[in-house]
Design a protein that fits this description.
146 residues, mainly alpha
Length: 146
Amino acid sequence: MSVSQSVVLRPTGPVQPLDRRVWGLTTVGVGGFLLAGVYQLSGQRIGIPCILHATTGLNCPLCGSTRMAAAMLRGDFGGAWHFNPVVFVLGPLIGVAVGYQVLAWSLESLRLVRLPRLRMSRRAADWTVYGIIALLIVYGVARNLV
C-alpha cells in the first residue's frame, strides 16, 4: 500500500474517481449498520436470517454480524465481540480505510482540499481479499467445531 500525492488546498483539475470496490464496501457497510439499527429499534424482531444456519444449524462466518453491529451501536463491545469477533475486528479496520477514501474523494470533489489517497496494487488488493476470505473460511469451520 502506498500513499500518493500531498495535501493541496483548493485543488483544481480533474478529480480521480473512487474505485468501484470502495463504493461497494461503502454500500455494504452503511447497509449493514442501517440493518443493525432497524434490528435494534424493532426489539430484535427484524433482521436477515442466515440460510445456512436455518437449513443446517451451522453458523456461517458472518452469522451474528447484525447482532454484533447492533451491540456496537449500543456501545456493548463485549457483546459485539461475543456475536462475531472476526467481523468485530475486520469491520472497523475496513470501515476506517474505506471511510477515509470516501472523505478524501468528497473533500476533493467539493474543491476544499486534496488529501493523499491510499493505493494498493491490483495484486496486493487481490491477495488481501483472498486472505480475508481464507480467514473467514477458517473461522466459519472453527466456530462450528467448538
